[in-house]
């Protein structure tokens, strides 16, 4: 089995129909033929997409909490302080 990793960010996700075949278009470079997909597989795809959205919401909430705590402590953002090392003369 070959695994393909694709990062599409906010690029479009669309359905396309070409010559009687249906494709799920993910971004500009990936097209998945779903013409013969069963209803069970399509339902599962919808469930996985909903799970991904829930995970992303949780990540956003966690980042918001960290930012709120930092703001309460008088900081504008959360990060690791950087200290310069000694410089050769």
Task: Please tell me about this protein's structure.
The protein is α+β, with helices and mostly antiparallel strands. 38% of the residues lie in helices and 18% in strands. The protein contains 1 helix and 3 strands, in the order βββα. The chain has one helix at 39-72; strands at residues 13-18, 21-26, 30-33. The chain has a 3-stranded antiparallel beta sheet with strand order 1-2-3, with no helix packed on it. A hairpin with a 2-residue loop joins β1 (13-18) and β2 (21-26). It is elongated, with a radius of gyration of 22 Å. The mean pLDDT is 81.
Arrangement of strands in the largest sheet: 1-2-3
- CA-to-CA gap between the ends? 56 Å
- Report the biggest beta sheet as strand number plus sense, adding barrel if it closes: 3 strands, antiparallel
* Gyration radius, rounded: 22 Å
Count of individual helical segments: 1
SS-based class? alpha+beta
Number of strands: 3
Mean pLDDT: 81
Overall geometry comes to elongated
Percent of residues in beta strands: 15-25%
Low-confidence stretches: none
| Secondary-structure element pattern, one letter each | EEEH
Helix content: 25-40%
Please describe the topology of this protein.
Elements: E1 13-18, E2 21-26, E3 30-33, H1 39-72
Antiparallel strand pairs: 1-2, 2-3
In brief, what are we looking at here?
It is built from one helix and three strands, in the order βββα. By secondary structure, it is an alpha+beta fold.
